[in-house]
Inverse folding.
DNA sequence: AATTGTACCAACCGCACCTTC
DNA sequence: AGAAGGTGCGGTTGGTACAAT
């Protein structure tokens, strides 16, 4: 079709986001909810293109994001899912609700990829392009396959876990509505703060430079400048369960992937590890015949 | 102390798909 | 039915901090 660039012509700011811009964006989302990104620049006066706003929100400002410090379990999960799904980071991220696809992608490219290529593993299914050329109209089927293969990946990943959740802990049913990420943190280790708190801290750091976050100087330089980025938000233990009062609604990620996931009965931003585990365990016990083909640990694209 | 190399991550870019008209 | 607009995804790049020399 030859679409024109979304950020047409001049007047569009690029580069790192400032705390001020973050605030504007967050307030907008608080008022209107995520979505309708096209309207964001005009409504807020932000000199950013809609795409940039969406990206900033989903990768950085969105509530429930955990940054840095991938656990062994997460790492295993990524490795398995990547091997099965290929470079479909959004699909992988849908099984790790507190991680963004960008984060996972970066982690893969910087940590796991080398590790894997060194050990001769990896590559996985259609790792090349990340997109297998599934004909149009078979999208859902492909996604169903994704779900199935992801379950297998989870089984493997969790079976590798030295300290798995006892089966007795699993709920009876496949969750219709997976808990919001913050709510799943009750188990308490590495928790992440709610968005409201995130923004509050951002504000603190911004309005009182020299204070903890120091976000004023520079927002976008990663975890290395640990205190200087919004990623400092993640460190608040005990913030977990207090999310209910936040004005920022928990985002659903209406991606193509999650749509199919919805169809399969797991709606929303995605389950936590324990929920995922119960989900796959239930599947193992109960309905193996969900209409999904049994997928060997090979190339999911072979089904198309 | 200065320079060079490496690692990391936020953000951009272009394409593909979906939705609306 | 098809065009146009909107959104999502994956690959890539650029900037910064740290490590090594």
């Amino acid at each position: 079709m030859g679409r024109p660039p979304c950020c047409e012509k001049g007047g569009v700011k690029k580069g790192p986001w400032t705390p001020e811009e973050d605030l504007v964006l967050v307030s907008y989302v608080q008022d209107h909810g995520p979505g309708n990104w096209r309207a964001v620049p005009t409504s807020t006066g932000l000199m950013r293109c809609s795409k940039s706003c969406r990206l900033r929100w989903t990768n950085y400002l969105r509530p429930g994001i955990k940054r840095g410090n991938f656990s062994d379990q997460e790492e295993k999960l990524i490795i398995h899912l990547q091997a099965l799904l290929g470079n479909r980071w959004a699909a992988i991220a849908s099984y790790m609700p507190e991680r963004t696809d960008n984060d996972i992608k970066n982690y893969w490219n910087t940590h796991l990829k080398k590790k894997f290529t060194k050990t001769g593993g990896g590559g996985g299914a259609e790792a090349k392009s990340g997109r297998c050329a599934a004909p149009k109209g078979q999208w859902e089927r492909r996604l169903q396959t994704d779900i199935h293969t992801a379950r297998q990946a989870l089984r493997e990943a969790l079976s590798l876990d030295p300290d798995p959740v006892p089966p007795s802990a699993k709920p009876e049913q496949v969750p219709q509505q997976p808990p919001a990420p913050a709510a799943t943190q009750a188990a308490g280790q590495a928790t992440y703060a709610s968005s409201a708190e995130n923004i509050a801290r951002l504000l603190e750091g911004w309005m009182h430079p020299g204070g903890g976050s120091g976000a004023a100087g520079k927002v976008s330089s990663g975890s290395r400048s640990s205190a200087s980025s919004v990623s400092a938000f993640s460190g608040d233990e005990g913030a977990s369960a207090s999310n209910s009062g936040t004005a920022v609604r928990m985002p659903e990620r209406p991606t193509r992937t999650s749509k199919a996931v919805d169809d399969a009965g797991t709606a929303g931003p995605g389950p936590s590890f324990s929920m995922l585990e119960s989900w796959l365990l239930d599947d193992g016990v109960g309905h193996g015949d969900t209409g999904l083909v049994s997928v060997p640990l090979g190339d999911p694209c072979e089904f198309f």
Remarks:
- The domain at 19-61 of chain A is CATH 1.10.10 (Arc Repressor Mutant, subunit A).
- Residues 139-160 of chain A form the longest helix (22 residues).
